[in-house]
Design a protein that fits this description.
It is a single chain. This protein has helices at residues 8-18, 59-64, 82-91, and strands at 2-5, 22-30, 36-43, 51-55, 73-78, 95-96, 101-103, 106-112, 118-123. With 135 residues, it is α+β, with helices and mostly antiparallel strands. The protein has one domain: 2,3-Dihydroxybiphenyl 1,2-Dioxygenase, domain 1 (Roll), CATH 3.10.180. It is elongated.
Length: 135
């Protein structure tokens, strides 16, 4: 999956610094017409799947920065320790647009990435909250 961003380095600072993702690859590359670009891939710690951070190239791609999911939550970051992850992200300057809340599927809060795309931070349901389909 690719996330269209304005520039590589601020995106890396956000995903690696603020979210704690791992930098998988940052290699020089070329656009289809021979201009320099970078191949930048990040992923959550321990994950097998990564995100390509793609610098916007041209007006159409620039217009898509932050609107890749039409204002909806389009990505989900599942964590084991919601409280610790939320606190670390707030301290790192991540902008949350909803307060943490409990849902049958877990604890959730919506945040914005560096480009303005909406993500759910998801943790396990708090103890004592029934899980849908559970006993």
């Amino acid at each position: 999956m690719a996330i269209v961003v304005d520039d590589y380095d601020p995106a890396l600072d956000f995903f690696v610094g603020a979210l704690g993702f791992e930098l998988v690859e940052d290699s020089p590359s070329l656009t289809d017409d021979g201009r320099p670009k970078r191949w930048v891939v990040v992923r959550p710690p321990g994950a097998a799947t990564g995100l390509l951070l793609a610098r916007a190239d041209g007006a159409a791609q620039s217009a898509a920065v932050g609107t890749q999911f039409a204002g909806r939550v389009g990505l989900f970051l599942r964590v084991e320790d919601f409280a610790a992850s939320h606190a670390r992200m707030v301290t790192a300057g991540v902008r949350f647009v909803s307060a943490p809340r409990d849902e049958p599927y877990g604890r959730v809060a919506v945040f914005l990435d560096i480009a303005g795309n909406r993500w759910d931070l998801l943790g396990p349901p708090p103890t004592g909250v029934p899980v849908a389909g559970g006993p």
